[in-house]
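Help needed: design a sequence for this.
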């Protein structure tokens, strides 16, 4: 279960890659725009301002997220759904998938299918985290594999569920797209007031720790959380009430008409 409040603790930091991604989609007018994995909808709502004449749709598998999104009152059609089942309508000009596909096994095949099913000249914009070798995720895997919870947790935590930018570029080029792929490491400066929880821990509670919390009872979760907190505090020490949290993200923007390559 997703917790919108936990996810939105760092909404500015989580939102920046979305805006950087969408900025690379050079479409003045669009008929229909779809945000696959829209979460709480706050970023999806900005698409209505970017393309005011378009039909905007936000899709997410979490009913809790969609409830939060619908409460925004934005000019967006929000619906619960699995991105693996989504099929583009003939008028879809832009598809955005921001920080979603790392949760979807087999998403490379899904990207190839989308590229083939989208109309000619449509744009596909994807961002996934590329920080699975960061100290935060190494600590998560180490704690998960070392405690009494190892049997339950080890299958839930994958080493590298995403490809590198070159891999995505090759994949979508082979699918007939013109592709722009890049990576960015954001250095987030997270507030760390005295006696508060470590901010990298609270960040992870909104995303990577969700399956761990779901698998453990309250006592197991408390023990796991305490062990992970200690490791994160050592890996990301606070300095002047700030924690510096580098976060690598991978971006791909593709157009289904490869003859438009010079426009990228």
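Sure. Designed sequence:
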């Amino acid at each position: 279960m997703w917790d919108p409040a936990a996810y939105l603790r760092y909404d500015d930091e989580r939102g920046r890659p979305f805006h950087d991604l969408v900025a690379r989609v050079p479409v003045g007018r669009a008929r229909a725009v779809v945000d696959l994995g829209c979460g709480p909808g706050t970023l999806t709502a900005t698409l209505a301002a970017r393309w005011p004449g378009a039909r905007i749709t936000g899709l997410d598998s979490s009913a809790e997220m969609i409830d939060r999104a619908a409460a925004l009152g934005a000019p967006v059609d929000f619906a619960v759904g699995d991105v693996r089942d989504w099929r583009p309508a003939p008028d879809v000009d832009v598809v955005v998938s921001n920080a979603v596909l790392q949760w979807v096994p087999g998403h490379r095949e899904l990207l190839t299918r989308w590229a083939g099913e989208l109309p000619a000249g449509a744009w596909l914009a994807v961002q996934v985290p590329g920080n699975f070798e960061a100290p935060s995720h190494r600590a998560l895997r180490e704690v998960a594999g070392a405690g009494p919870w190892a049997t339950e947790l080890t299958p839930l935590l994958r080493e590298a569920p995403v490809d590198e930018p070159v891999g995505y570029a090759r994949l979508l080029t082979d699918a007939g797209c013109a592709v722009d792929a890049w990576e960015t490491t954001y250095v987030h400066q997270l507030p760390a007031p005295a006696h508060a929880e470590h901010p990298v821990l609270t960040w992870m509670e909104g995303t990577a720790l969700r399956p761990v919390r779901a698998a453990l009872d309250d006592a197991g979760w408390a023990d796991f959380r305490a062990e992970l907190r200690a490791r994160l505090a050592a890996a990301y020490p606070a300095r002047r009430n700030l924690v510096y949290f580098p976060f690598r993200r991978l971006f791909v923007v593709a157009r289904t008409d490869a003859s438009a390559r010079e426009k990228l």
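The chain has eleven helices and seven strands.
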